[in-house]
Amino acid sequence: MRILCTGDGTFTGDDLIVGRYYDAVEADTPTEAQNRAFHALLQEFWASGTHSYNAKNFEQFRDFIKRDIGAGFERFRYVVETKEGLRWGTAKTVYDIPDNVAHDEKGNPLAAGILKSWTKYTKKERKETIDRLISTMVQCGINSKKFDEIIEGMRSEVYTETTAQ
To answer: What is the mean predicted confidence (pLDDT) over 64-82?
Structure first.
């Protein structure tokens, strides 16, 4: 349901019933249904073994998914060499990492991306990530009863949310 606050204690919206309480959240607030769908899809994808990720565990697999088809990195951490010694720094994008970044013994730069937490995703970012995850799963040949149940549950959630208005 969508409502619009038009002033202190006043509002308009879709078929609101006088005397009834409504739980209202801002329209762009991520939903619990999105959270359940994302994690159920991830579990099914992991269990299927049809993905090409070389993940050691479910948490690493989830991070690969968030990196590759999710919102990706929210920032980067790096170490730079200065006259006073090594110093930590942060950058918004990989292109903002300075040229004087320190290197390890193998010559690799001491820089790493920090993934955006699922709890910080916007409603739009969650929807786009879930859509891409479903598309990836279909492309990988996921065709299980559990996958069908998750998709059907997502359809029911959308139907329930839109008809409850």
So the answer is: 96
Q: How many CA atoms lie within 13 A of 3 on its CB side?
A: 16
At residue 161, the 3 state secondary structure works out as helix
From the list 80, 22, 58, 79, the residue with the least C-alpha distance to 66 is: 58
Q: What does the alpha-carbon distance between residue 32 and residue 58 come to, in Å, rounded to a whole number? A: 21
3-state secondary structure of 113: strand
SS3 159: helix
- pLDDT for 2: 67
Q: What are phi and psi of 2, to 5 degrees?
A: -115, 130
- Taking the complete model, does pTM exceed 0.85, yes or no? no
Is 156 exposed, middle or buried (CB count within 10 Å of its CB: 0-12, 13-18, 19+)? exposed
- The token pair at 120 is 């910080």
Torsion from C-alpha of 138, 153, 32, 161, nearest 10 degrees? 120
Q: What is the pLDDT of residues 119-135, one digit of tens each?
A: 999 999 999 999 999 99
Q: What is the mean pLDDT of the chain?
A: 88
- Ordered DSSP codes for 21-79: ------TTS--HHHHHHHHHHHHHHHHH--S----SSHHHHHHHHHHHTSS-EEEEEEE
